[in-house]
Automatic annotation (TrEMBL), chain B:
Keywords of this entry: Iron, Iron-sulfur, Magnesium, Metal-binding, Oxidoreductase, Thiamine pyrophosphate
Tree of life domain: Archaea
TM annotation in the entry: none
Protein name per its UniProtKB record: 2-oxoacid:ferredoxin oxidoreductase subunit beta
Example GO molecular function: iron-sulfur cluster binding
One Pfam family from the record: TPP_enzyme_C
InterPro entries found in the cross-reference section: 2-oxoacid:Fd_oxidoreductase (IPR051457), OFOB (IPR011896), PFO_beta_C (IPR032686), THDP-binding (IPR029061), TPP_enzyme_TPP-bd (IPR011766)
Sequence ranges assigned to domain Thiamine pyrophosphate enzyme TPP-binding in this UniProt record: 56-200
One biological process term in Gene Ontology: organic acid metabolic process
Cofactors required: thiamine diphosphate; [4Fe-4S] cluster; Mg(2+)
Residues covered by the Pyruvate ferredoxin oxidoreductase beta subunit C-terminal domain: 204-265
């Protein structure tokens, strides 16, 4: 909050230290709500105040309230509208009397834009990517994706099942993929922790799976309703043994859509766990975007028909064995979480064990690496300073750099987090690196060091459970830049 | 129609090296299963066995049907999803008493509630064979093992009573020493629409010296005058402990998980054949253009 911030509210609900820092305008929200009939209407009064401040169409708000509360009966609808109007009038008065000055001009060009949340973007992206099976156990902030998909399950003719625990959720997803479906689980850190056994099975059995991991601050139950980028190491190392995985972390709501869709092709192609990492900040944020280009999504299927002598784990040059599924073709498919021969039967053979380990952990990883996406560079590639970020911090860092307005500072954003291509090393050569991430130990900087041997010079870290603000990043950057 | 169990014998090279001990009850169960599948007229391509971990869970390697040898206790959720993703397949979840009743206990409880149309075969030898003889949830009171040297004092798990208490769809027990009867029970279990649980008693010749072939013959009997549609009677039979009743305890016909799923309300196609509904996504996006 800056000195220009205006806070409207009731004095008894604001801590003293804040009162000095902001422009505080007292409005009697509780009293107004009670006048309508119950303190329950407080939220609607407040929404009305905001609509009034911005000179919004009150009809639009009324129409929304009518829809929102239709199921609760006419009386509830009427009272809410009454509350909204009451607040709206107050908002207008505050402006007209010059107490609050909000100057917004109407931007007609956004009229046809889409208002989307990160949650909806992940869910719709999954559907566009051909997802037809979702198993989950509720955990904030990942549950929204399941709620959205459950509500649309009938239209999309998909399976959405709330199961007994996260262990069951991910095992079901593995079973669904084994039978040819495109399955996802949606979870958060604690749930993901429980899934690690099955992630290891996915690695060994080369069973594709897509996991949406919406981060919140941990360890354990942490701060259940707040945000952090603290689970990267968990995602990187989840599961026992050595096997590849792909970690994606969308930087924006748009990207959450496209990357989640893409996750299904990647899982299908490489037969590995693909983890889409968001966080509370991204999934609970709403903003308008021009449109979603559905034509950009191509569903690529890699399932093959099983021939008579089918070998599920055929040794190949690139480490990818053609994947057949039960019910398609004459061959028999045997998948296995034990070390196996090419048919999938258990083996203790030393030579075969060695070849299978290499197939998964080296050959397949190399194939994925070669095809990995490059990070996105914002700014001049010759800039002296390079800011590094991953996941949901994209816009806030970008905005801070725009305000900073310096040619010698560029930004490299990673939404393809792992595995990293070897050739990205040159992007860092001779630059002063500034790592910005929302955790306490700079997990992404650690990853860069381990994978490509680069060291960051400065770290800007936030780990109080709150998202970065543009101002914070700006201030922190000013401190480290010459 | 195929009636030859030989088509279920695997010719894969890895299948020839069987890890079960000579005389192990698992051989008998494999024979029973192959005969049941053949008599039902199924082909290897139509059947999937999902197994957990343990000697019983090695079944997918010693038989010619689709298989997935998974993790300890996790066969049921995986099998549930296989069936839900492709209802055209005949899906069997297979594992031992430790697999299904200990590590996988929670999944079993909730599978009973969910009622997928799968068959759960539990090879119940009342011991952990793979890990060399520790007590399992069904080990009898007082039995001494290397890890329970003082003798088991925990109340043995009663899977039959539990399943009936939860109103399971199909609950049966057999002893693999009775070949023909076991084939019939497994055929009925597979044919049953909904979750079918068959507890299959069998000896572990290496690590359970108490519950031998002879012990099971002497301590079991076939229910002859039992109505499996009567839950109360089923429960009374279920809590009999010596001799143990064999046969179908309980049948409760109710809708299956797949039937109830919105995925199959109008569309019967397996999920792998489906394409994303881009039109529906467009509709949702359009609805987001205002407000």
């Amino acid at each position: 909050m800056s000195e220009n911030t205006v806070v409207l509210g009731e004095r008894e609900n604001v801590e003293d230290e804040f009162l000095e820092k902001v422009n505080f305008i007292e409005i009697p929200l509780s009293r107004m709500a009670k006048e309508v009939g119950s303190p329950l209407y407080l939220n609607t009064v407040a929404a009305g105040v905001i609509a009034g401040l911005f000179y919004a169409d009150i009809e639009v708000l009324e129409e929304y309230l009518r829809k929102r509360f239709a199921s609760k009966g006419e009386k509830v609808v009427d009272r809410n509208i009454e509350a909204a109007i009451k607040g709206y009038k107050l908002g207008r008065t505050l402006c007209e009397e010059g107490i609050v000055g909000v100057e917004v001009s109407r931007d007609r060009s956004v009229k046809d834009e889409i208002l989307l949340s990160g949650t909806e973007a992940v869910a719709l992206g999954a559907l566009a990517g051909g997802m037809n099976f979702l198993s989950f156990y509720p955990m904030s902030p990942s549950t929204g994706v399941a709620v959205f998909l459950a509500q649309h399950a009938e239209d999309f003719e998909i399976i959405v099942e709330q199961v007994e625990d996260e262990i069951s959720a991910i095992n079901m997803a593995l079973g669904a993929w084994f039978a040819g479906a495109r399955a996802m689980v949606t979870t958060s850190g604690g749930g993901f922790a429980l899934m690690t056994e099955a992630i290891s099975l996915a690695g060994m059995a080369e069973n594709p799976v897509v996991i949406h991991l919406a981060q919140r601050p941990s360890p354990a139950t942490g701060l259940p309703t707040r945000t952090m980028q603290g689970d990267l190491n968990l995602a990187l190392h989840a599961g026992h043994g050595e096997f590849p995985r792909i970690i994606l972390a969308p930087g924006s709501i748009e990207e959450a859509f496209y990357l989640t869709a893409e996750a299904f092709n990647l899982a299908d192609k490489y037969q590995v766990p693909v983890i889409v990492m968001t966080d509370e900040y991204l999934v609970d944020t709403y903003y308008n975007i021009p449109d979603i280009e559905l034509d950009r999504i191509k569903v690529e299927k890699y399932i093959v028909e099983a021939e008579e002598d089918y070998k599920r784990y055929k040794l190949t040059e690139d480490g990818i064995s053609p994947r057949a599924i039960p019910g398609y073709g004459k061959g028999i498919i045997v998948a296995n979480g034990n070390e196996h021969d090419e048919y999938g039967d258990i083996t203790e053979d030393g030579e075969l064990s060695r070849l299978m380990q290499e197939k998964r952990a080296i050959k397949k990883l190399e194939t994925i690496k070669k095809n990995a996406k490059l990070p996105k560079l914002v700014g001049d590639k010759n800039a002296k300073y390079l800011v590094i970020g991953w996941g949901s911090t994209y816009y806030v860092i970008k905005d801070a750099l725009e305000q900073l307005n310096r040619d010698d500072v560029a930004f490299l954003h990673f939404s393809w987090v792992y595995p990293l291509r070897d050739d990205i090393k040159e992007l860092f050569d001779g630059k002063v690196l500034i790592d910005i991430e929302g955790n306490v130990t700079a997990q992404f900087a650690q990853l860069l060091k381990k994978e490509i041997g680069v060291n960051v010079s400065y770290k800007i870290l936030k780990y109080d459970g709150r998202p970065f603000s543009v101002e914070e990043i700006l201030d922190a950057l000013k401190e480290v830049l010459e | 129609m195929n009636l030859n169990p030989k088509i279920f014998e695997s010719k894969r090279p890895g299948s020839q090296d069987v890890a079960w001990c000579p005389g192990c009850g698992n051989f008998g169960i494999r024979n029973i299963l192959m005969n049941a599948l053949a008599e039902l007229g199924l082909t290897p391509q139509e059947v999937v066995i999902i197994s957990g971990i343990g000697q019983a869970a090695k079944m997918p390697h010693y038989i010619n049907v689709h298989g997935y040898h998974t993790l300890h206790g996790r066969a049921i959720p995986i099998a549930t999803a296989v069936k839900a993703s492709n209802p055209e397949l005949t899906v069997i979840a297979e594992g031992g008493d430790g697999d299904m009743y200990a590590e996988g206990g929670n999944h079993l409880l909730h599978a009973i509630r969910r009622n997928p149309d799968i068959t759960v075969l539990i090879h119940d030898n009342q011991i952990y064979g793979l890990t060399k003889g520790q007590a399992s949830p069904t080990t009898m009171l007082g039995m001494k093992t290397p890890t329970q040297p003082w003798g088991v004092f925990e109340e043995p798990f009663n899977p039959i009573a539990l399943a009936i208490a939860l109103n399971a769809s199909f609950v049966a027990r057999t002893f693999m020493g009775y070949f023909k009867e076991s084939v019939e029970i497994i055929k009925k279990a597979i044919r049953h629409k909904g979750l079918a649980i068959v507890d299959i008693l069998h000896p572990c010749v290496s690590f359970n010296k108490v519950n031998t072939y002879q012990w099971y013959r002497e301590h079991t009997y076939w229910m002859e005058d039992h109505d499996p549609y009567n839950r109360e009677d089923a429960f009374k039979r279920a809590i009999e402990s010596d001799p143990l009743p064999l046969g179908i305890f309980y049948i409760n016909e109710r809708p299956t998980f797949e039937e109830m799923s919105p995925a199959y309300k109008r569309n019967k196609m397996p999920l792998w054949k489906r394409e994303p509904k881009i039109e529906e996504i467009k509709k949702i996006l359009d609805s987001k253009r205002r407000f």
